[in-house]
Amino acid sequence: MTATNCLDTSASDAEDVCRVCGCTDLNGCPGGCSWIVRAGAESLCTACIDHATEEELDAFDAEQEEDDD
Ligand SMILES: [Zn+2]
Ligand SMILES: [Zn+2]
Predict the structure, then answer these.
(1) Non-local CB neighbours of 15 within 8 Å, separated by 6+ positions
(2) What spacing in Å lies between the alpha carbon of 52 and ligand 2's midpoint?
(3) Ligand 2 centroid to 31 CA: how many Å?
(4) What are the domain boundaries of the chain?
């Protein structure tokens, strides 16, 4: 038997987790943050924007522009 020792059957392995600070949808940064990149364990939140690559920032900017009021 090679089953992994996974007790939590409800856990999703696709949960977004900030790769820098480790925050999640349910457990965000103090003061709040949103996702620059949603990529599972490689996600990045706005609190860690200094760690974003130029590519990621470009994509994030484009997304923000769509979101005007
Ligand atoms: Zn973060
Ligand atoms: Zn965060």
Answers:
(1) 24, 25, 40
(2) 13
(3) 9
(4) 14-50
Sign of the dihedral through C-alpha 17, 22, 27, 32: negative
pLDDT digits (tens, 9 = 90+) for 2-27: 555 555 555 556 799 999 999 999 99
15 token code pair: 């949960």
Per-position DSSP letters for the chain, written without gaps between them: --------TT--TT--BBTTT--BSSS--TT---EEE--GGGBEEGGGGGG--HHHHHHHHHHHHHT--
Tokens at 16, concatenated: 């977004």
pTM for this predicted structure: 0.72
CA distance 49 to 18: 11
For residues 57 and 65, what is the distance between their CA atoms, to the nearest angstrom? Answer: 12
